[in-house]
Amino acid sequence: MTLRAGVVVFPGSNCEHDVVSALGSLGAEARLVWHKEGDLSGLDLVVLPGGFAHGDYLRPGAIARFSPVVGELAAFVGRGGAVLGICNGFQVLTEAGLLPGALQKNIGLRFVCRDVELRVESTSNILTSALEEGERVRIPVNHFEGCYTADADDLRRLEGEGRVVLRYLDNPNGSANDIAGISDATGRIVGLMPHPERAMSKLVGGGDGRRLLSSLLGALAAA
């Protein structure tokens, strides 16, 4: 079965073609979805890619959260779909209330663009189900507002329910509890700041991103 993915394009997105190419190289049928579309029928996966949705006016994701496609995501997941938010996409998911917490400016007010080492904290989600807890992966980050923050109750819930997906080993942005990615309670909505689509081979990015996206597609195929 060929999995079908929609990669959402907001005004200001700039990583959508990278994601389409990465998923296509793994055998998925991926297409671009304009943010004003409200029909997600026929899709197995929706990806919110990186970039600067609506120019990050007000704050990252604050305007994008009102797009028709974002309003359909909860119902889409309820029908068995899955959602992955990468970088700006993670910010959109928190603004929309689909994931807890928020992303704020990096500590030191510095833009960060480099490879980071991550530890797999949980495998009870669509992204890391084929990996091992405690395993280390190396993925690039590219952001100015990637410092994850949440109130104490949300942090306790995320940690206690195994919803921290990835954790920085050398925190590049000041994120609470070194959090690099989280999931919702179902494990079918995942947001992360690192860019797996930029680590698809040993020659470009090291290949750990390919492992993560392969795990994602494998989880959906087995569902």
Explain the overall architecture:
- By secondary structure, the protein is of the alpha/beta class.
- It is built from 6 helices and 11 strands.
- The strands form 2 sheets. Strands 2-1-3-4-11-10-9-6-7 form a 9-stranded mixed β-sheet.
- The radius of gyration is 16 Å and the shape is globular.
User: Architecture, according to CATH?
Assistant: 3-Layer(aba) Sandwich
* SSE pattern, N- to C-terminal: EHEEHHEHEEEEHEEEH
What's the name of the CATH homologous superfamily? Class I glutamine amidotransferase (GATase) domain
Q: Shape, please?
A: globular
Question: What's the gyration radius in Å?
Answer: 16 Å
Biggest sheet, spatial arrangement of strands: 2-1-3-4-11-10-9-6-7
Compute the separation of the termini in Å: 12 Å
State the helicity in percent bands. Answer: 10-25%
Low-confidence stretches: none
How many discrete structural domains?
1
Mean pLDDT score: 96
Output the CATH class name: Alpha Beta
CATH topology: Rossmann fold
User: Total strand count, please?
Assistant: 11
Q: Mind summarizing the main beta sheet?
A: 9 strands, mixed
Q: Tell me the fraction of residues in β-strands, as a range.
A: 25-35%
Structural class: alpha/beta
- Can you count the helices? 6
